[in-house]
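For reproducibility, we list the full input for the NAP complex.
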Amino acid sequence: MTSFLSLPVVSPRSIPTAFSLKRPFIQTPPTLHFKNHRFAVSCSYAEAGVSGDSKLSTIDVVADVKSERIVVLGGNGFVGSAICKAAVSKGIEVISLNRSGRPTYSGSWVDQVTWIPGDVFYVNWDEVLLGATAVVSTLGGFGSEEQMIKINGEANVVAVNAAKEYGIPKFILISVHDYNLPSFLLSSGYFTGKRKAESEVLSKYPNSGIVLKPAFIYGKRRVDGFEIPLDLVGEPAEKFLKAIENFTKPLSSLPASDLLLAPPVSVDDVALAVINGVTDDDFFGVFTIDQIKEAAEKIRL
Ligand SMILES: NC(=O)c1ccc[n+]([C@@H]2O[C@H](COP(=O)([O-])OP(=O)(O)OC[C@H]3O[C@@H](n4cnc5c(N)ncnc54)[C@H](OP(=O)(O)O)[C@@H]3O)[C@@H](O)[C@H]2O)c1
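The corresponding predicted structure, in tokenized form, follows.
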């Protein structure tokens, strides 16, 4: 008798537990077969009290489980390291590409990431992208107009096109909230670059691209070996703005009011929203601050 069972989504680590229910019947140890990021398990069994090969049956379990392998561009940065840490904790294989490679601090999650030192403009993508199921870009930052267009815009455009060329099914971009700024401020290199990157993701990945648009992100930011506890400001500000949101909503039509009123979001929420994007194929498009928090909650539950 051959049976094909569809299992609910389970992690590879839980398979032995699932099989232990049938332990008295199992004659051969289960074998795992991996193909196209899916895996199947097969083993032979006989009913209790029955001996002899004639009663042996084989059960094949084809589990609809994808083994995820993500590439985080900027995995040692403030947001990137939270994403790597969260992904590792969910059993996702993680590769980071950033110029300085492995961070200087230690941690068990740090050892579980493959750190590839390299610049997104010069990297050999073969070493980075082969076999990946998603690319997550945290590339971005401040500087001169030219630098901001380059790192927020061009670097991401290069990455999106490389991912597309290598057939990577999903691209997740950490962008930024628009703060309802007047258009003359949105024309700065920072926002021009971000918009360029967003439209590249959405046009090359119309059915799977993800753009997260957080405002201020708080957490513990590491700078030159020191930890800056941005959460001391960010967390109370998030709670306060939530408590008064009914009063502040009418102000949101005022230009640039979101510079004061857009709620901060924790770096862990951004990371969990990314994990939700990696694991849920129905999650794609552009996500606001509130939607980032909702997506994070789904993973936290
Ligand atoms: N922090 C916030 O409050 C906030 C709020 C809203 C949106 N965002 C957006 O979120 C993203 C991440 O921000 P963050 O604060 O985490 O930035 P970050 O700490 O400066 O991290 C940037 C990462 O990019 C890497 N990187 C820079 N240039 C690179 C290149 N040419 N090739 C490869 N890697 C490169 C850096 O590592 P190396 O230097 O080693 O290359 C670093 O790992 C940015 O796009 C930012 O605009 C941040």
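The pocket of NAP is lined by residues 73-74, 76-80, 97-100, 119-121, 138-141, 151, 155, 174, 176, 214, 216-217 (CB under 6 Å). The first helix runs from residue 15 to 20. Both points were considered when choosing residues for closer inspection.
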